[in-house]
Design brief:
The chain is α+β, with helices and mostly antiparallel strands. The chain contains 15 helices and eleven strands. It folds into three domains: 52 residues, no CATH class; 222 residues, 3-hydroxy-3-methylglutaryl-coenzyme A Reductase, Chain A, domain 2; 88 residues, Alpha-Beta Plaits (2-Layer Sandwich). The chain starts with a helix and ends with a helix.
Amino acid sequence: MKDQELIDKVVNGELKFHVLDKHVDAQKAAELRRRALEVLTGTKLHDISSFSLDAERAVKTNIENLVGVAQVPMGVAGPVQVTGDFADGLYHLPLATTEGALVASVNRGCTVINKLGGAVSFVLHDGMARAPVLKARNIRHAKEALAFINRSKAKLKEITESTSRFLTLDAVQTWVVGRNLFLRFVYKTGDAMGMNMATIATDAAVRFLEAELGLKHIALSGNMCVDKKSSALNLIMGRGKTVSAEVVLTREVIKEVLKTSPEVMADIVYRKCLLGSALAASYGFNAQFANVIAAVFIATGQDAAHVVEGSQGFTTAELTEEGDLLFSVTIPSLQVGTIGGGTGLGTQRESLEIIGVHGAGEPPGSNALKLAEIVGAAVLAGEISLIGALGARHLVEAHEKLNR
């Protein structure tokens, strides 16, 4: 069929959007969907149609019913000096956001960190979780199943690790509620964020347990993962990468750059980030983790929904005996990868290349761990800048100056 015939059939409801992929290549299908959508909605899709990404690649792994792109402005902050187990150097930070003043804020935090010799940042724990729920006949059956699982860790490790050469089973955590059995499988997944790998491996384990124990599979995710939701479990036990970053802010630099004092910043962290968050029953004991994490995720092709988990965490500020400020951030659940997902798309790949972490690391997993340490330092920079702005009462002034 000719282009116009296909468009007419979509407009008339004779052909669904996704069927266009069977008639033409991905690039042409996207164009025809746009043209049909323009007729259906009366909206000219000029900007949505302008993109450089590989349409064929995108429709295979990232999107359905492709019509174009939603462009997000991207800026760069830094470079920032980071020292960790995997990161060691100066790193520019690509940040994609529509929130004015965010890049400037992170950049100011980087300036502070660099004046003090850089930040230290470490991944304390690495483990992607998938947690199915299975139903036993009764609580006795559930108890027997739990005992079998505890005896069969080696077999479960063999089964799950057979699904990918980059995956290793780290732990199987268990809970019983009535006759319901919740199993939280925790894996190391190399340089991939690892959600798909964890899902495939866990499905293999569940099939084994069904056959051996007569348990009934209810859902491959029983919400104890906990994926893309706020939770005390992930705050305490972590999911993905657990990262801590730290710097000692001297009184002189705080006064020179942030225009405030260690005492004022410590008081804000205590009353805002800790007491205020506790009063609100929030798991985000911080100022703006989500701002920085979202901007990095969008720029580098991470799963943006995992910002929910990344927003949880702690900012701490403690006065030292010398009168300086020991300032740190701890992010219990940071899901990042340098291969898979959206990381192979053009602009996202280039952003990872700016940081120096695109693709598989050597040894495997080292690039994702390096990225996590750098993101930790970026979050630290954002927290320093915002807490400093609040202390100096510069927050409104900064937004007004940048016409926000």
